[in-house]
């Protein structure tokens, strides 16, 4: 299941309440985001040890600004409410899975 916070408070609560979080900063109009979305969704269904979050940069521009998101898609990997790594652009399924495993 992918969480889609509607406010910055919802987003912050997700980060505080979950140990491992994978965030996809995206937008509906972004072509690369549309190609990446099915991979992100598939991996989220197969992964029990992480919480997956989609942040629409147009709807939550305050979050994307605060996080310094300059290109999309950007995937951020969090552990215990701390950023461990981030990647801008398309991520292949095997790389996404490996990056999540490294958080464990």
Describe this structure in words.
With 104 residues, the protein is α/β, with parallel strands linked by helices. It has a single domain (2-103), classed as Glutaredoxin (3-Layer(aba) Sandwich), CATH 3.40.30.10. The chain contains 4 helices and 5 strands. The chain has helices at residues 8-17, 31-46, 61-66, 93-103, and strands spanning 2-3, 20-26, 51-56, 74-79, 82-88. The protein has a 5-stranded mixed beta sheet with strand order 1-3-2-4-5, sandwiched between helices. The protein is globular, with a radius of gyration of 12 Å.
Identify the CATH architecture: 3-Layer(aba) Sandwich
* CATH homology group: Glutaredoxin
Cα shape: globular
> Which strand order do you get reading across the main beta sheet?
1-3-2-4-5
> What structural class do you assign from the helix and strand content?
alpha/beta
**Major sheet details:** 5 strands, mixed
Tally of separate helices: 4
N-end to C-end Cα span: 19 Å
By CATH reckoning, the class would read Alpha Beta
List the domain count as a whole number: 1
Got a strand count?
A: 5
**Average pLDDT figure:** 96
Strand percentage lies at 25-35%
The stretches of 5 or more residues where confidence is low (pLDDT under 50) are none
CATH topology: Glutaredoxin
Secondary-structure element pattern, one letter each: EHEHEHEEH
Cα-atom radius of gyration: 12 Å
Query: Which percent bin holds the helix content?
Result: 40-55%
């Amino acid at each position: 299941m992918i969480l889609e916070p509607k406010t910055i408070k919802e987003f912050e609560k997700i980060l505080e309440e979950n140990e491992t979080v994978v965030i996809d900063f995206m937008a509906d109009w972004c072509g690369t985001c549309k190609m990446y979305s099915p991979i992100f969704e598939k991996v989220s269904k197969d992964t029990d040890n992480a919480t997956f979050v989609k942040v629409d940069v147009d709807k939550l521009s305050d979050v994307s600004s605060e996080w310094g998101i300059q290109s999309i898609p950007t995937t951020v990997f969090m552990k215990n409410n701390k950023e461990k790594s981030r990647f801008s652009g398309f991520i292949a399924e095997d790389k996404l899975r490996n990056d999540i495993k490294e958080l464990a």
